[in-house]
Amino acid sequence: MLTIHDIAVWDTGERIDLVISESDEQRLLTESGAIVSGDIDGSSLIVAPGLTDPHVHFRDPGQLDKETMVSGSQAAAAGGYTRVLIMPNTLPAADGRDINVQEVEDGGEELKEVGVYNTLDYLQRYEQLHDVKLPVRYDISVCASLGRAGKLPTRPADYERFMDSASQSARSDNTNAKTSRSADNPLVEHPLRAITDDGSAITDEILDAVLADSKATGLPVLEHCEHHDSGAINDGVISRKLGIAGISTETELAIVNRDIEAARRTGVHIHFQHVSTAGAFDAVRRAKVEGLPITCETAPHYLALCDEDIVKYGAMAKMNPPLRSEVDRRATVAAIADGTVDMIATDHAPHTAAEKQAGLADAPNGIIGLECAYGVCRKVLVEGGAISDERLIELMALEPERLMGHTPTDVAMLLNTSSTCATKRTLDLSKVEHPENVDLTLIDIRNDWTVDSSAFHSKGRNTPFDSWDLTGRPMATIIGSKLVFSRLPDCLENRQDGSMTV
Ligand SMILES: [Zn+2]
């Protein structure tokens, strides 16, 4: 049993004692010296709903040298995340089709090994097929186009069986989402939750069909708002100075404008991934005023870095969309501050060291993000005065949960239903109603730490944030009321006598 005294509830600030009765031994991940039982002083900690990332690449199946479902999930747990949404640009692509045995030879070794010939099926039953317990929850997404090639739309008939029957009711009635899920249907554990061709925009020729399928299935469309064939970094002073082909900000704006018009025409919910430019934020801002079903995310790197940083970080700062100008970076922070941005996603994209050493022009796009996202965002947004600590939790926990059709854990409500009246209340997770639905992150918002990518749980080391000094770090991750990750130090004042318990 782990009792954390004097921990603050993230939104109300109320000081409580938090009791975690057992850890999930099968899933438990700890850092050296971390404690999982005993009594500790938690007065520097907040208890918040678990962070959720609606945009991760775990490279499994197909590129296990970059990441696997296991290493990616461990990185998520260590970053304070309790749930992630897996993007479908795996090899083979997760487009819902069964592939035949010949095709498996081309990038489907992992499928062949477990005898499953459908990537969605492989992902959904990953734990069962590999006899492992992954430390975090995950949902899956399906490509918008077959093979993610942009030519033909994917077909609901191929992928509907991977959906959760609760998905659609979750959308109409968020409050019933968790309780209506059937526990004995293995397919609901990791449901299909979104349609996306992430990595490139949905092409003009299939857009209407994809929107119609979104309407029919209730799955939101996640749009990567870029369509271009050339360019490695932002088009501007830096690209000209370095002599590298640039990507215009117009590429993002063109897709954003096209899709806002599509949302107006069809009423389909379109979610823009990693928006990065001032013009696109303005367009989203206007669409929201109009009341259109548009949401958007941005990523830590777009609010923390600009294209000038490429000179220092090289390919470690290469991603798609590219880091934009300082004007765009400031517009990103402003769009977060005024509520235009609904949520923050990492776009966690691991690559090998060798690939990133290929140089700015040739290295693949993408950086990892799960294990330092909270600290980077807090440094720029909260310490920078743009938003409060509470708003940061909304952006990284509540809003992504809602996008994926889940009901975020409500700490204040748990307290009201579980604890007896006392001067200081106790939240005993073994005594709450539906403990299986309680996902929490314990964050030390005053913890000073230095990013050390060599200690990451991810296989990826491709981050520009290595050796950054940050304040604020997730210290423990709780899923289904059980501890799955701890870096809680026992150097916090130990209170074996339990004197603080009321
Ligand atoms: Zn992505």
General description of the model:
The chain is α/β, with parallel strands linked by helices. 30% of the residues lie in helices and 19% in strands. It has 18 helices and 19 strands. It has helices at residues 69-78, 101-104, 109-114, 119-124, 126-130, 156-159, 165-172, 204-217, 237-242, 250-266, 278-289, 300-304, 310-313, 326-337, 353-356, 373-382, 389-403, 411-418, and strands at 2-9, 15-20, 29-30, 38-41, 45-49, 51-56, 81-86, 137-142, 192-196, 221-223, 233-234, 246-247, 270-272, 294-298, 343-344, 426-428, 440-450, 469-479, 482-486. The strands form three sheets. Strands 1, 2, 3, 4, 5, 16, 17, 18 and 19 form a nine-stranded mixed β-sheet that branches. Helix 11 links the parallel strand 13 (270-272) and strand 14 (294-298). Helix 10 runs parallel beside helix 11 (278-289) and helix 11 (278-289) runs parallel beside helix 14 (326-337). It is globular and about 60 Å long. It starts with a strand and ends in a 16-residue tail after the last strand. The model is unreliable at 168-187 and 493-502 (pLDDT under 50). Residues 55, 57, 87, 198, 347, 349 line the site of zinc ion.
